[in-house]
Every structure is written in C-alpha cells, then in structure tokens.
C-alpha cells in the first residue's frame, strides 16, 4: 500500500487530516516500533497492560510516515500526521479490506490444522517462477497479522499467498471477508484447538469458514480424503471446488510416490512426468499436491512447478534439517505439534535410512482439551520402538507418552528441564544418528538443537 494520508482517511471514512499533512505519503503498515520501516503507517492499540499510543511519537521519530489515533485516547498530538479513528483494530481491518478491493492481485488463502505454513511456502515458491509473489511473514495469520500482511502487499504484486489461523468460530470468516480470496485451500482437519472447539467436526466447520469471503469466481481446493471436508463441500450450494489426496477419486492424486532423504517424487494421475518435492516427510506429499493443484489452476506447467519447488524458501522449524557438531543430523520440527503431525513426523523417522540410530525427542502437545492424556498415551503406544529405540520426552503431558513407550523399550526418558534433557541426549549420540525434535511452540525444544550446533 502506498497512499497519501488524505487517501487513507477517505478509505477509512475518517475526518481529513490537517492540510499540512494531507499529502504525506505512507507505505505499508506496522504495529511494532522495533520493526517499523520508513514510511510505514503506525497503528497503535490500547491494551490492558500497555497503550501503543505512548509510542506514536517514537514511531514517527524512527521514520514512520503517519499514525492512527483512537478517539477515546486523550491528548491526540496536533503537531503530528495522525488520523483519528473510533477503533484501531477495526480501522486496520477496514483499511486492509478497502486496499484489497481496489487492487487486482490474486489472493491464495490457506488454512488447516497442520501444514498451513509449509503449504504457504510451497505455493509461494512454485508460483514465483511465473508471477511476482508475496506471502505471509512468519505466523502473521490472525485478526491483526493478516490485515497487516495485506497492507504490505505491493501494488505490483501478482499473487498474495496468505495464511489464515484461528482458535474459534468466526475468526476465519473475518479473515476471509477481509482478503476475499480467489483460491482457498484447506490442508486437513486435525486435533489442534480441540480445547476451544470440542470436536473435529467443529474444527472442520471453523476451517470451512474460509469460503465465506471467496471471490465470486473463486475456487476451493481441499484435502479430499477427509470425510468431514467432503461432507461440507457437498452441502455448500454453488461452491466451485476441487479435491486432492491419495485416493484416486480425487481430482489430483499421486499415481506413484517415492520417498528418500531429499524429500519425495510423485507421478500425478495420468501424467508421465515426475515432480520432485524437496521437503522431508511423506506427509509433505499432500502439502505439495495442494501447491501443484493451485499452480496448475493459475496456468503453470509441470516444468515450471518443478523449477519452483527447487527454489522455494521454507519457514524455519518445519522438518528443517540441521547438521550437528558431532556428525549427527537433527530434524527441527519444533514450531508446533498435534497428534496427527507428531505421527507423521515419526513415520518419516521410521522410514528414514541412516548410518547410525534413530532418536525421538518429543514435547507436550498443547490445546488438545479434555482428551489430552489419551492423545499423548496413543503416541507412546503407536510409535515404532523397533525403528526408533531411544525416546526422550519433555513437559508434564509428555510423561503420559513416556509411560506407554517404556512398556515396550527401556531407553525412554522424561524431563522438565532443557539442560537435563541435553545432558542425557549427549550420552546417546554418535556420528550418523538422526534425531527428530518435535513439540508444541510453548515447549521451546529448538533450545535442545541449539546445544549441538
């Protein structure tokens, strides 16, 4: 977004700024004085613990072009380029929606219980072989992050790839109505947010809200092997959709799949050509299919798709290969964890070919609700201890997992302290070992890997 302050006031239906600031140009937006860029529109929020309005002058001193100011906050500065608004959060969302409506870049919106960020990275990487692409930075996927992302999309961009997260009903609907996607993608339905939504059926309904803002000519791509999504699609009158998955009933499926230490290679449906997906784990075949489905819809050839997969930049802590200082290899999958994603990561470890032994370091899975004990115990019951003989667990909930696993293999350990876990792990490591490290974000298990760099 590149606008004068007068234009922004008109988009917000706000009072015009004073004449001396009317032609001030702002570019992009920020809510953080630590990361503010020259020319940004600074948007302060009035919170319970702190008030961002205290930092408006500091933001402008750091190079911000202008700022919003909520009307119920006293002492609005008359000597600074500010626009008065009734509510800063709603103004941010309204401005992002208005900016989206007046621009012609395509929007690909992605949600799902697992794989959102990886799929976002894949789609952005593949499409970049043909288009100018911008994508959600990090996890800016909520009621503040998504509109900020939109406001930082340049007018010259062809495709914006946006991630949409949620913890309850109504949240994805809001984001979808702001972004009005041309393409919506639902990667899967898992167990994350059971604590808030109570059932996988409700999680599916909340994710399906992504179609609420779908462009009139828009399309939904979804994981067709999930019955909950198929049912919702069948009930949605007039929805244009297409599925992908392993089953041959899907519109896009892999006829053949090869998994190796570099990622996977798939042969699509009736196609003879193979496509390489250089991301570890069999589960990432599905994320790759979502990217291929999107790219084909936007006119890319399989050759361009193959090239894009080779150039894509992946977000850290998602099946990230890290070389240890002693010749061991870590798989850093510490960004988040759910039962589905943990079992997928363990499947990768089980199938991997290594010179040494395989070790799993697993932390608590959070936000699973009243069945959290059952989910943790099931991981301990189901993991293949013949292929993965050493297990170190971390966090109060992971003790349930350890209690089940130790019934089948003796090399099981439980910790509440990172340093103690690292000391024990060092005793088991040898050159050529492969160590999977995975847990929910709150477990901060990347600290374990940092100790071996």
Structure characterization notes:
This protein has 453 residues and is α/β, with parallel strands linked by helices. It folds into 3 domains: 2-87, MurE/MurF, N-terminal domain (Udp-n-acetylmuramoylalanyl-d-glutamate--2,6- Diaminopimelate Ligase, Chain: A, domain 1, 3-Layer(aba) Sandwich), CATH 3.40.1390.10; 103-311, UDP-N-acetylmuramoyl-L-alanine:D-glutamate ligase; 320-450, Alpha-Beta Complex (Protein-Tyrosine Phosphatase, Chain A), CATH 3.90.190.20. 33% of the residues lie in helices and 20% in strands. It contains 16 helices and 21 strands. It has helices spanning 5-11, 56-61, 88-102, 116-127, 145-151, 171-179, 194-197, 200-208, 227-235, 284-297, 302-311, 339-351, 372-382, 398-405, 418-428, 446-450; strands at 2-4, 25-27, 29-30, 41-42, 66-70, 82-85, 106-111, 133-135, 159-163, 183-186, 219-223, 241-244, 254-260, 263-268, 274-277, 320-323, 329-333, 358-363, 390-394, 412-415, 434-438. The chain has a 6-stranded parallel β-sheet, with helices on both faces. It has a 6-stranded mixed β-sheet with strand order 16-17-21-18-19-20, with helices on both faces. Helix 3 crosses helix 5 (145-151), helix 4 crosses helix 10 (284-297) and helix 4 (116-127) crosses helix 11. The two termini are 40 Å apart. The model has no long low-confidence stretch (mean pLDDT 96). InterPro entries: Mur-like_cat_sf (IPR036565), Mur_ligase_C (IPR004101), Mur_ligase_C_dom_sf (IPR036615), Mur_ligase_cen (IPR013221), Mur_ligase_N (IPR000713), MurCDEF_CellWall_CoF430Synth (IPR051046), MurE/MurF_N (IPR035911), UDP-N-AcMur_synth (IPR005863). Residues 110-293 form the Mur ligase central domain. It is found in: Cytoplasm. Belongs to the MurCDEF family. MurF subfamily. It holds the Pfam family Mur_ligase_C.
């Amino acid at each position: 977004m590149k606008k004068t302050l007068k234009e922004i006031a008109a988009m917000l239906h706000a009072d015009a700024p004073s004449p001396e600031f009317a032609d001030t140009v702002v570019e992009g937006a920020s809510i953080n004085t630590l990361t503010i860029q020259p020319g940004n529109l600074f948007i302060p929020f009035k919170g319970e613990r702190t008030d961002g309005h205290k930092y408006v002058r500091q933001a402008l001193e750091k190079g911000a072009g202008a700022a919003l100011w909520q009307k119920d906050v006293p002492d609005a500065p008359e000597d600074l380029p500010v626009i008065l608004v009734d509510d800063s959060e709603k103004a941010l969302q309204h401005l992002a929606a208005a900016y989206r409506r007046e621009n012609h870049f395509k929007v690909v919106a992605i949600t799902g219980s697992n794989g959102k960020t990886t799929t976002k990275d894949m789609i952005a990487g593949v499409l970049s072989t043909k288009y100018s692409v911008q994508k959600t930075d990090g996890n800016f996927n909520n009621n503040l992050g998504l509109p900020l992302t939109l406001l930082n999309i340049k007018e010259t961009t062809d495709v914006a790839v946006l991630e949409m997260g949620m913890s309850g009903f109504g949240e994805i609907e809001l984001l979808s109505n702001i972004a009005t996607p041309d393409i919506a993608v639902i990667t899967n339905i898992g167990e994350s947010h059971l604590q808030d939504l109570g059932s996988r059926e409700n999680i599916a309904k909340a994710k399906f809200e992504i179609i609420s803002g779908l462009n009139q000519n828009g399309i939904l791509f979804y994981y067709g092997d999930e019955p909950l999504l198929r049912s919702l699609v069948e009930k949605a009158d007039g929805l244009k959709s297409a599925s992908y998955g392993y089953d041959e009933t899907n519109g896009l499926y892999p006829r053949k799949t090869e998994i190796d230490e570099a990622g996977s290679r798939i042969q699509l449906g009736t196609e003879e050509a193979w496509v390489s997906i250089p991301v570890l784990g069999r589960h990432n075949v599905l994320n790759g299919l979502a990217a291929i489905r999107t790219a084909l819809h936007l006119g890319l050839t399989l050759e361009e798709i193959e090239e894009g997969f080779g150039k894509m930049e992946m977000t850290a802590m998602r099946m990230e290969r890290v070389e240890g200082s002693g010749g061991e290899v870590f798989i850093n999958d510490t960004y988040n964890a759910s039962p589905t994603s943990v079992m997928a990561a363990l499947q990768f470890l089980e199938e991997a070919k290594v010179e040494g032994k395989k070790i799993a370091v697993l932390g608590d899975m959070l936000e699973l609700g009243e069945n959290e004990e059952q989910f943790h115990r099931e991981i301990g019951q189901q993991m293949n201890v013949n292929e993965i003989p050493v297990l170190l667990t971390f966090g109060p909930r992971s003790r349930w997992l350890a209690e089940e696993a130790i019934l089948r293999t003796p090399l099981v350990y439980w910790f509440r302290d990172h340093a103690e876990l690292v000391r024990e792990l060092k005793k088991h490591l040898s050159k050529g070992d492969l160590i999977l490290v995975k847990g929910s974000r709150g477990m901060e298990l990347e600290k374990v890997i940092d100790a071996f760099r």
